[in-house]
Specification:
With about 675 residues, the chain is of the alpha+beta class. The protein has helices at about 5, 25-45, 55-80, 85-105, 110-120, 130-145, 155-180, 195-210, 220-230, 235-245, 260-275, 280-285, 295-330, 335-350, 355, 365-380, 465-480, 505-510, 515-520, 535-540, 545-565, 575-585, 605, 615-635, 640-650, 660-665, 675-680, and strands at about 185, 215, 380-385, 395-400, 405-415, 425-430, 445-450.
C-alpha cells in the first residue's frame, strides 16, 4: 500500500478493496484524487513530442481509467448491496463528478485529434487486434460524446449527461426506497397455501421489521411466495397492487418516491442529446454500436417473434382462465391470480411444484455445481478464501485458478435478499484485467442475487428458476474473468455490442435443463441424493410451460422500451402509459389494471444500460441457443467445445465484432430459428 491508501482505502494501488474500512468520507477525496491524476495524464500524453503511438497515448489513458475504476467500483457495489443515507449522498456526488469529467474527456478535441492521428498512422495496421479495437472504440466514443459540437451545444451536451446521471441514480433509489418501505403483517389464516419454507422466510422478514410473526414485503422472493401460492385472493391483490405501483403516483406509497416526472425528464434529455449529435432519436444513438444497427431491424425482429408467440400465448391464457374457473372457482381471472392459477395448473399437469424441487437445490451445493461446471468446460478451479475483507457476513470470495494452478481471477458472491440491498440479480466488475501495471491486475467479478436466506429451520433452498438465474449471472462473470485481452476497454464484457453481451449468460442457462448439468448443480440438502429421474422428466416436460406468455411479456418490455425512445416527441412529452397501452394492444394477452405502473420501476432502461436496448435479451438469445446447439450435439459437457467457446467468445471480449466471434465458434452465422426452438415454438 502507498501512503495515500493508508488513510484512504479507496486509493490503494493494487489488491482487493478493504470493504470494512471504507466509509462515506473516503469516497469524494478518492474520486477527486483519481480524476486529478487522470487529468495530469491527459496533459502529459498530449505534451509529448512527435506522433502519438499506442504506448505513448492509449496505454497511459487505459491505466488512468483503470485507476479511477479501481477506486469507484467498490463504492458502486456498496451502493447496491449495503446502502445507507450517508453513502447514498456521497455516491451521487461522486457519480456526478465522474460523469462531468467523462463528458469533458469525451469532448477533448486535442485528445480526439491525437487518437485520430494514431488511427491514420502506419503503426495502426501493425498493432494486434485488441489494440486496434481500442483505438476505434475510442474514436466512436468521442463522436458519441459530442466532440464535434460547437458552443453552446457543446456545453449543453455536457450538462445533459450530468443531469441524466443524477436522474438515473434518483430513479433507482426511489425504487429501492418504495420497495423497502412497505410491509404487511400477516394473520395465520393468510398464510394458507404458502409452503412452509416460504412461511419461514416471511417470519424471518417479520423479525427484520421487528414484527412478531410473518410479514409480506415487496422483496422479490416474498412477492413470488404470495402471488404464486397464497390461497387468500385478497392478500394476493394487496401485494400485487403494492408491488406494481411502487415509485408511482398510485398505491400505498410515499409520493416522494414517485418516478413519473423522472421518466419524462430522462426521455426528454436523452432525445435532446441525440438531436445535438445529429441523430433522429435516442434509439438511433443506442444502435450506433450494436449488432442490430437500424431501428427497422429491431422492430421487424420483435414483431416477427410476436407473430409466432402471441397466438400461443392466447391459447395458454384461455386454457388458464378455464382452469381457474372450473377448478379454482375464479370466475374472472385477474392479474394477481395468474401466478397462483399457473402454479396450480402446472402442479396438476406435470405433477410437481417448485417446492418439490427446492430440497434438491441447497445454495451451497448449487454454487459448488457452478464451479464444477466451469471446471469441466474450461478447466477452472474455485478456491474459497477466508482472509478477504467483505461487506457482509453473507458474502464470500473465491480465487479462480487455471488447471495448472495459476491465479486467473477473483470472484465475490453475495446471494441473499436483505434491507438496503437493491433487488434483482446482477454481475458487476470489481477489477478489470490490465497487464500494463507495476502490479498486473487480474479480473475480479461480483455476483449478486436476492434469493431467500436460510432460516432457523432450513438452509437456503433455491427454486429451479433461481438456479437458472445463478447460471445466467455466472455466465457474465465467466465472460469477465476469462478474458485474454490485457486492456480493460475491450476486455471481458467491455466493448462487446450490447445486444450480444447476453450471449455468455444466456448460454449458461441451458445447462440447467440438462441431466448432467442438474446432477452437478443439485443434491438433496439432507441426503445428497440426485434429483430423481422421474422429477427431472417432469421438470423437462414443463420447460415450455407458458412459453408463449413469457415471451409476449418480454416482447412487451422490449417493444415499449424501444418505441419509447424511438418515437419520443418533446412537444407531447413521455406519454409512457399511453404507449404502453398501444404496445399491449399489439403484443400482450394479459392486461393489467389502468393503475399499474410498470414503467416507474423499469430500472433496466431508466437506471441501467438498457435504454432502447432491452430487445438485446431476445436478440442475444438467438446467439446463445444456437451456440449451445454445438454442446448439445457433442454430449453437453464437451471439453473441446468448451475450449473453443472460451477461446472464440469469452477470451476475446470486445476486441472484435460479436458476429465475427460467433462465426469463429460456430463456423457459420446464427440461425434465427434457434430461438423459437428454445421456446418450443418452432414449426
Amino acid at each position: 500500500m502507498n501512503d495515500d491508501s493508508a488513510a484512504n482505502p479507496l486509493l490503494a494501488t493494487h489488491g482487493l478493496p478493504d470493504f470494512p474500512t471504507i466509509t462515506a468520507d473516503h469516497v469524494l477525496p478518492a474520486v477527486e484524487a483519481r480524476i486529478a491524476s487522470y487529468e495530469a495524464c491527459v496533459e502529459q500524453v498530449l505534451a509529448q513530442p512527435g506522433e502519438p503511438s499506442f504506448d505513448s497515448l492509449m496505454a497511459p489513458l487505459e491505466r488512468a481509467q483503470a485507476a479511477l475504476d479501481h477506486s469507484f467500483a467498490p463504492v458502486g457495489h456498496l451502493h447496491g448491496v449495503a446502502d445507507s443515507a450517508e453513502l447514498r449522498e456521497v455516491y451521487a456526488e461522486a457519480e456526478a463528478r465522474i460523469t462531468d469529467f467523462s463528458a469533458a474527456l469525451g469532448q477533448h478535441r486535442g485528445l480526439f485529434e491525437a487518437v485520430r492521428r494514431l488511427r491514420q498512422s502506419s503503426e495502426f495496421d501493425t498493432l494486434p487486434r485488441p489494440e486496434r479495437a481500442l483505438i476505434e472504440d475510442s474514436l466512436r466514443g468521442f463522436e458519441l460524446s459530442g466532440v464535434a459540437l460547437e458552443e453552446p451545444a457543446r456545453s449543453r451536451f455536457k450538462a445533459i449527461q450530468s443531469e441524466l446521471s443524477r436522474l438515473s441514480t434518483a430513479f433507482e433509489e426511489a425504487v429501492l426506497d418504495s420497495t423497502d418501505a412497505w410491509f404487511k403483517t400477516l394473520a395465520a389464516a393468510e398464510l394458507a397455501g404458502i409452503p412452509e419454507s416460504a412461511q419461514s422466510m416471511l417470519r424471518a422478514m417479520g423479525a427484520e421489521h421487528e414484527v412478531e410473526g410473518a410479514v409480506a414485503t415487496l422483496k422479490g422472493p416474498a412477492v413470488q411466495a404470495v402471488l404464486n401460492f397464497a390461497d387468500d385472493r385478497a392478500l394476493r391483490e394487496v401485494v400485487y397492487t403494492a408491488y406494481q405501483t411502487r415509485a408511482s403516483d398510485q398505491g400505498p406509497h410515499d409520493p416522494a418516491h414517485d418516478n413519473s416526472a423522472r421518466i419524462g425528464e430522462i426521455l426528454a434529455l436523452r432525445h435532446e442529446a441525440a438531436q445535438l449529435l445529429g441523430f433522429a432519436s435516442s434509439a438511433h444513438v443506442s444502435l450506433a454500436d450494436k449488432m442490430a444497427g437500424e431501428p427497422e431491424r429491431v422492430l421487424r425482429f420483435l414483431r416477427e417473434l410476436a407473430a409466432k408467440a402471441k397466438p400461443v400465448a392466447e391459447r395458454e391464457l384461455a386454457e388458464l382462465s378455464e382452469f381457474a374457473r372450473s377448478e379454482l372457482g375464479i370466475e374472472a381471472l385477474q392479474v394477481w391470480d395468474v401466478g397462483y392459477a399457473a402454479e396450480k395448473l402446472r402442479q396438476k399437469r406435470f405433477d410437481y411444484s417448485d417446492e418439490d424441487l427446492k430440497p434438491y437445490f441447497p445454495v451451497d451445493r448449487v454454487i459448488d455445481g457452478l464451479f464444477a461446471l466451469a471446471g469441466q468446460l474450461y478447466g477452472l478451479r474455485f478456491a474459497p478464501r477466508d482472509d478477504v475483507p467483505l461487506w457482509h457476513a453473507d458474502a464470500r470470495y473465491f480465487d479462480v485458478l487455471d488447471a495448472d494452478g495459476r491465479l486467473r481471477a477473483g470472484f465475490y458472491v453475495d446471494l441473499y435478499a436483505r434491507s438496503g440491498k437493491r433487488g434483482g440479480a446482477w454481475m458487476d466488475v470489481c477489477r478489470a484485467r490490465i497487464d500494463a501495471l507495476e502490479h498486473p491486475q487480474i479480473p475480479v467479478a461480483f455476483l449478486v442475487c436476492n434469493v431467500p436466506p436460510p432460516t432457523p429451520e432450513l438452509p437456503a433452498l433455491l427454486t429451479h428458476d433461481d438456479v437458472i438465474t445463478l447460471l445466467h449471472e455466472f455466465g457474465h462473470g465467466l465472460h469477465h474473468m476469462l478474458t485474454e485481452v490485457a486492456w480493460p476497454g475491450v476486455g471481458g464484457i467491455s466493448g462487446v455490442e450490447w445486444d450480444a453481451v447476453e450471449l455468455p449468460s444466456q448460454f449458461m442457462e441451458n445447462f440447467g435443463w440438462t441431466r448432467v448439468g442438474i446432477d452437478l448443480l443439485g443434491g438433496h440438502y439432507q441426503t445428497g441424493e440426485k434429483l430423481p429421474q422421474a422429477l427431472f422428466d417432469k421438470l423437462l416436460s414443463a420447460r415450455h410451460y407458458h412459453a408463449g406468455l413469457f415471451l409476449v411479456r418480454q416482447l412487451e418490455y422490449a417493444l415499449f422500451d424501444f418505441r419509447l425512445h424511438l418515437e419520443f416527441d418533446p412537444a407531447r412529452g413521455a406519454q409512457a402509459m399511453a404507449l404502453l397501452d398501444a404496445v399491449r394492444d399489439e403484443v400482450s394477452v394479459i392486461r393489467p389494471p389502468a393503475w399499474q405502473r410498470m414503467p416507474n420501476t423499469f430500472t433496466h432502461i431508466f437506471a441501467g444500460g438498457y435504454a432502447a436496448g432491452y430487445y438485446s435479451y431476445l436478440w442475444a438469445e438467438v446467439l446463445s441457443a444456437d451456440a449451445f446447439g454445438a454442446f448439445a450435439a457433442a454430449g453437453v459437457l464437451d471439453a473441446a467445445a468448451g475450449e473453443r467457446f472460451r477461446r472464440e467468445i469469452l477470451a476475446v471480449g470486445g476486441s472484435r465484432p460479436a458476429l465475427e466471434s460467433f462465426i469463429a465458434f460456430r463456423g457459420r452465422e446464427p440461425e434465427p430459428e434457434a430461438l423459437l426452438r428454445s421456446y418450443g415454438l418452432a414449426a
